[in-house]
Amino acid sequence: xxxxxxxKITEDKIISLFMESVLENEKVxxxxxxxxxxxxxxxxxxxxxxxxxxxxxxxxxxxxxDNSFNVMQKNSEYPSMTNEEKMLxxxxxxxxxxxxxxxxxxxxxxxxxxxMEGLGQLKGLRRKFKDFASTLIEERNEExxxxxxxxxxxxxxxxxxxxxLFILKFWTEDGSPGLExxxxxxxxxxxxxxxxxxxxxxxxxVDFGKFLYKEKxx
Length: 218
Prior knowledge:
Blueprint: H1 11-25, H2 32-38, H3 43-47, H4 53-73, H5 83-100, H6 102-111, H7 123-141, H8 153-173, H9 180-195, H10 202-217
Helix pairs in contact: 4-5, 4-7, 5-7, 5-9, 7-8, 8-9, 9-10
């Protein structure tokens, strides 16, 4: 008799098994074949969702963004937030999401600590984040009548992305209770992201610089 049982393998299930495998074995599986055999998955089921482990790892970061963005938008107060508050809410939500998966993220970041290879995993996340940041600054530009006072969205989004990378690195090294220092870094960083495009950002930049100096050399 033919087996008519519908496969219960999903994208999220494969991701969960992959993350568990990485943490339990302290390395990325050596091959899709061995990974599938170990977890009783057909290779065609794996390839139905991912072309490689590299694709899977990129998808994990994409999902961190998508899950955070969806949670943020479900907040009834989100539509009435200022653009700075929206960015701040995203950062807090995103890093709360990362903290739920901290062991995996720390392992992956440690693996690529001395190379730029790891940033390849962040390509999809970078695109999504920069689109989000650009949308916020374009909305802010709509409030300005003169073009001379409008902000450069590509420049703003790139600056926001660099700040994101800084916070990500800060988060990986944060040993404070409840990662409370990361929360402080997020608040100061997001404020800087927006204030740097204002006419008098000096005080904010100096304040942020003092914070970074204290954390680096304390």
